[in-house]
Amino acid sequence: MSFEHNDFALFANFPHPVFLISPDGTILEANKFFIDKYFSQIKEIRGKSIFELISNELQAPESSARRKAVVDTVVATGQHMIFDDDAVPSEAPCTLSNLPMERSHAF
User: Fold this and answer.
1) Fold held by 6-99
2) Rounded to two decimals, what is the model's pTM?
């Protein structure tokens, strides 16, 4: 899966942080805005745990735990969730959706 794929082309240059994670928090893809804003010092974030990055790189373990709980809820229920997190600065609330992935999009 990649933002270069037509299904995700919209997000490649989206002017807000966008990233896709697996149910366990592994980063599958992230747009340039996300990487530049939060993790510009890391060469490759694909394959890393978003929860570990938030906890270690952003020094926000409480935020990491809260986000993991939200991700677990979204995965378990399939419900869309919007939430704010003061520990990780953002211009807009975070939005999580459980998107079914087709085998053809796996990388």
Assistant:
1) Beta-Lactamase (3.30.450)
2) 0.74
